[in-house]
Amino acid sequence: MPGKIVGFEQWRAGEYFQDYYGTQVDADELAAIRFQVQFLRQAARRFDRAIEYGSGPTLMRALAAAPAVERLDMADWLPGNLDRLRQWAEDGPQADNWGRFARYALECEGIAAPGDEAVCDREGRTRKMLGELLWTDARRPHPLGEARNRSYDLLISGFCVDCLTESREEWRACLSNVLSLVRLGGAAIVFALRDCAGYRVADQWFPAARVTRQMLTSALTECGLDPGSLQVAECDLPSHAHQGYEGILMASGWMAP
Q1: Where are the domains positioned within the chain?
Q2: How far is CA 93 from CA 22, 33, 250, in A?
Q3: CB within 8 Å of 42: residues ≥ 6 apart
Q4: Strand (E) positions, the chain?
Q5: Antiparallel, parallel or unpaired: β 247-254 and 231-236
Q6: The model's pTM
Q7: What are 1-24's pLDDT values in tens digits?
Q8: pLDDT tens string 236-257
Q9: CA distances (Å), 160 to each of 41, 77, 94, 212, 216, in order?
Q10: Architecture of domain 8-254
């Protein structure tokens, strides 16, 4: 069981990066990045306008999306997360190192032993396709304002909506709000911590909604994803028990036209 759950005023983007991404590509991201790359390659198309919703301070989903996306906006609720993204986008001296994640994305695409030049190229390509860095609130019926509803061809959301609240009802409402950003006929990729009541960052515990595979499948269908296109997979991760979860859920599908 997690320790005492704290509010996001206690969030430190640097601690989160160091705990989860600072030294290696951990087992959860080995699975999640591979799942994302496989979906985008099977889609066999370019997405003109995409968004990563609830990016946190992380770049691995953007790096994995770059070959399939013309422009990627990134949205998050915490200004500190957006500041960290901005440092990387501007290639600032204090930017986090995401090279190992770029390398792994290239491996998932079938490139054997990608070298430093290939990694640099992927990072440069990603910076060029990054669009706006947006503040957002998933609790709002129009998380990015009414003008952006049904405006994106692709939405990627990784371990975000399920990690905002302990309330399953609020999680479902937030997921519906977020998926309203996807145009009819567009695609969505969603990751969630499986049956997680709270996840640890350094010595703090943050909320999670204990989402199960059945719950995620049902909620995505209710939010408009075509059941015939919906793919939901899970990955057991006992090595992450100390962080509050022992598995992840990975889903992809297309919005019914």
Answers
A1: 8-254
A2: 16, 26, 34
A3: none
A4: 50-53, 72-76, 130-135, 152-158, 182-193, 198-201, 204-207, 231-236, 247-254
A5: antiparallel
A6: 0.97
A7: 688 999 999 999 999 999 999 999
A8: 999 999 999 999 999 999 999 9
A9: 24, 10, 25, 15, 13
A10: 3-Layer(aba) Sandwich (3.40)
